[in-house]
Amino acid sequence: MAVSAEHLDRLARGDARADRMFRWSVAAAGFFVLIGLVGAAVTMAWGGREAFATFGFGFLTSDHWDPGNLVFGGLAPIVGTLITAGIALLIAVPVSFGIAIFLTEVAPSWLRNPVGTAIELLAGIPSIIYGMWGLFILVPFLAEHVYPTLSQTVSQWPIIGPWFDGPPIGIGMLTAGIVLSIMIIPFIASVMREVFLTVPNRLKESAYALGSTTFEVVWNIVLPYTRSAVIGGIFLGLGRALGETMAVTFVLGNANRLANLLEPSSSIAATIANEFGEAFADLHRSSLLALGFVLFMVTFVVLSIAKLMLMSLHRREGN
Fold first, then answer.
1. Which of 22, 123, 174, 196 makes a 20 to 30 Å CA pair with 189?
2. Are residues 139 and 14 in the same domain?
3. pLDDT above 90 covers what percent of the chain?
C-alpha cells in the first residue's frame, strides 16, 4: 500500500512537534531545579537581612547567642557544624574505603550481596533513630568507658590537648561526629563499591599476573582508575553531614558556645530546629534564617569545590 507524500509530511510534523514538547518539558524541569535553588537562597538571605543589618560581620565572628537580650552571634553553631562534619569524614572515609575494598576484592562471592544489601539498608534508617541510639546507647558508653581516658591522657598532649580537656559527660561534638560518621558511611561506601566494580577485570588480572599483592592492585590500579568518583562520593557524604539535624540535636548538647570536643555545643541545623518554633521576636527569627543562609552557602561552596576538583582531575587525565 503506497503512502502519500502528504501523509509522510503530517507524520514528520507530528514527530517534530512531539520532539519540541519533549525538549521544552525537560528544559522546564531543569529550570525548576535552578529556580528552586535560587529561590531558597534568596528567601533565606532576605529573611536574614535584619540580622545582617543589625550585627553586620560580627554575626559571623561572635559566639554570643542570647535570645533573651536579642543578641545573636552565629560563630558557635557554624564552628560546631564544620567540626562535627569534619570528624564524621575522618572516621567515615577510611571505614567506607575498607568496606568497599572488602566487598569488591576480598569477600567471597556468597558474602558480597548480603553485606552490600545491609550497607544499603543502613542508608534508609531515619536519622531520628540514629539520634536516639546515640543518646541512649552511645553516650552512656562513651561517658563511662572512653571519654574519661581521653580527658585524663589526651588532654595533656601538646596542640590537641585543649580539644579534649572537658568533662566526660558523653554529649558533645565528638559524639555527634561519631554518630554522623555512622550515618554517612553507607552513602560513601555504596558509591565507592559501585565505582570500584567499574574497574576492568583485565587490568587487575594483569597486575596480579605480574605478582602484585591486593594492596598494590588497589593502590596502583583501582584508586587511580576511580579517583574522581571516589572524591565525588566523599563530598556527597560531607554534604549530608553538614545538613543533618535530628541525630545531631540528640547528642550535641545544644549549647550555643564555643567548646572543646567533649563539651556540649551546637550546630546550625540543630539551633534552627530547637529555636525556630519559639522565635517570636523578629530579630531572633531573622538570625535563624541568617544561619540557614550561612549553612546553604557553606554547603554550596563545599559542593562547588568538589566539582572544581573533579573538573581539574578530568583535565589532568585528559578527559
1. 174
2. no
3. 24
